[in-house]
Specification:
The complex is a heterodimer of chains A (about 150) and B (about 300). Helices cover about 35% and strands about 15% of the residues of chain A. Chain A has about 150 residues and is of the alpha/beta class. Chain A has a single domain, classed as 3-Layer(aba) Sandwich (Collagenase (Catalytic Domain)). The radius of gyration of chain A is 16 Å and the shape is globular. Chain B is α+β, with helices and mostly antiparallel strands. Chain B has 2 domains: about 120 residues, no CATH class; about 180 residues, Beta Barrel (OB fold (Dihydrolipoamide Acetyltransferase, E2P)). In chain B, the strands form 3 sheets. A 6-stranded antiparallel beta sheet of chain B has the order 3-4-5-11-10-7. A 3-stranded antiparallel beta sheet of chain B has the order 6-8-9. A two-stranded antiparallel sheet of chain B has the order 1-2. Chains A and B meet through helix 1, strand 5, strand 6 and helix 2 of A and helix 11 and strand 12 of B. Strand 6 of chain A pairs antiparallel with strand 12 of chain B.
């Protein structure tokens, strides 16, 4: 997505992810199951110093930032595979929230809350059995209600 | 061989636990201290002293009869005094407060100048936290009991309990301008208001984690209230209590994994409350240092009521 200048916070020198999410809600197509914004800017949300991603719980919109997923941010050499894995985990995590899943206490589950990038690297790009069943059930329910084509899981 | 191995394995002292002085002296094979080295109020110590005294009497009466191996004929002090002088560990060495100190005073702590010096020192200085964990960006000191109103209680040598604000509370309240501590001699009760903190003219009452009488307060906080923000588990301690219902009170507090779980739940609750205009969840991020400063315009009283339970 384009640089969200409207969400820039001059005090924190970061972008307010809630403002961007509200913007996404306005431009989200009605016939969409889930709408995810991807940005390069550094995101924050009130009370947290930064976020990798933000999502509506049981909503359509979510947002992820590449800023703190890039290995270069941690003074490491560029690594495309590592970046893609981190993006996959963060995107799946936010998608889970959109389907109503909350944070999981299992550190290996993709729904575990990542406080730091080490937590993202530790967790797997997949749901634990409980979160997976919930994810599947919610996706099936949503697909039936909205007449969407159900993806194979 | 098997039985010897079993006996050795029974002597493992779990992390965070300390040997009873009766075990340290070799009078009993295994006993952990459950009274914070406050032998004067320890039921076990009293029972052992009585048992040894009776046994000594019976030995005098029937001197010709061999004493069975399982009878206790010496107190822990007697046993320690049988050791060479260079091996008589001071009680503060046994409890880990000092790395090395040999007892020069025949374990008569009441007349020991080192004991008096240590008592004074331990009352004003909080011991460093050796282990801590990070729960969603909040610091959790290990070996400390936590109250649901976000205060902590740490039982220390001699049965005293040091009290402070936890990292969650100090971040929630932000940089404090004043801390109004209870007076020495004041009685506090678990779950009832124990003290008050102020920030920018707003006040928040905070609950006491333990029942007892306040015996010391951290005077440094009068001039430097920000110590409670910077070092919540060490220099920023608030006051020391002589507890009146320690064992009962500790059962109502969170410890270890329970404390970690409780803090994690509180973090989620705080995030929801701070962003209640839009039902959202975030991935990532440690908490800012001054949460109340970040939530300008939000209802301070509501946050205090929800998390400090006052």
């Amino acid at each position: 997505m384009e640089n969200p200048t409207y969400a820039y916070d001059e005090t924190r020198h970061q972008y307010n992810s809630k403002v961007i999410l509200k913007h996404l809600l306005q431009c989200c197509p009605h016939d969409t199951l889930s709408f995810m914004g991807v940005t390069r800017v550094d995101l924050f949300v009130p009370i947290l110093k930064y976020v990798f991603g933000l999502a509506q719980i049981k909503g359509k919109c979510s947002l992820i930032s590449l800023y703190r997923l890039l290995p270069q941010f941690y003074n490491q050499p560029p690594n495309r595979d590592l970046l893609m894995t981190r993006i996959e985990k963060t995107a799946l995590h936010e998608l889970g929230h959109c389907l109503g899943l909350t944070h999981c206490r299992d550190r290996r589950c993709v729904m575990h809350s990542s406080t730091r990038i080490e937590d993202t690297d530790f967790k797997q790009p997949e749901f634990c059995p409980t979160c997976f069943e919930l994810f599947k059930w919610r996706l099936e329910k949503l697909s039936r209600e909205g007449n969407y084509l159900m993806p194979k899981l | 061989m098997v039985s010897k191995d079993k006996r050795e394995s029974m002597k493992i002292v779990p992390p965070g636990k300390k040997k009873c002085v009766w075990m340290e002296a070799g009078v009993v094979s295994y006993k952990l201290c459950d009274n914070n080295y406050d032998c004067s109020t320890c039921v076990y110590d009293h029972a052992m002293q009585v048992k040894v005294a009776r046994q000594k009497e019976s030995v005098v009466v029937a001197a010709s009869i061999d004493t069975p191996a399982d009878k206790f004929t010496a107190t822990w002090v007697d046993k320690m005094m049988q050791l060479p002088a260079s091996q008589r560990k001071c009680r503060y060495m046994i409890t880990g407060e000092v790395a090395r100190k040999i007892c020069p005073n025949a374990y008569e702590c009441g007349s020991c100048s080192f004991d008096q010096m240590m008592q004074e020192r331990l009352q004003v200085e909080a011991l460093p936290v050796h282990a801590r964990s990070d729960v969603g960006g909040f610091d959790l000191a290990e070996g400390v009991y936590y109250h649901e109103g976000h205060t902590w209680a740490k039982p220390e040598y001699g049965g005293r309990v040091r009290v402070g604000l936890d990292d969650f509370a100090q971040r929630l309240l932000g940089r404090l301008s004043r801390i109004e501590l209870p007076n020495i001699g004041h009685e506090v009760k678990q779950g009832e208001v124990g003290f008050q903190v102020r920030k920018n003219g707003q006040a928040a009452q905070v609950l006491s984690p333990i029942d007892g009488i306040v015996s010391h307060i951290n005077n440094e906080l009068l001039d430097q209230p920000e110590l409670a923000n910077e070092f919540p588990y060490e220099k920023g301690w608030l006051f020391i209590i002589e507890p009146t219902k320690l064992r009962k009170n500790l059962k109502s507090l969170f410890y270890g994994e329970e404390a970690s779980k409780y803090l994690s739940e509180e973090r989620e609750k705080l995030f929801s409350l701070a962003n209640e205009d839009l039902r959202i969840a975030a991935d990532g991020g440690v908490s800012v240092d001054d949460i109340s400063g970040e939530l300008k315009g939000k209802n301070w009283a509501k946050f205090v009521k929800t998390f400090l339970k006052t």
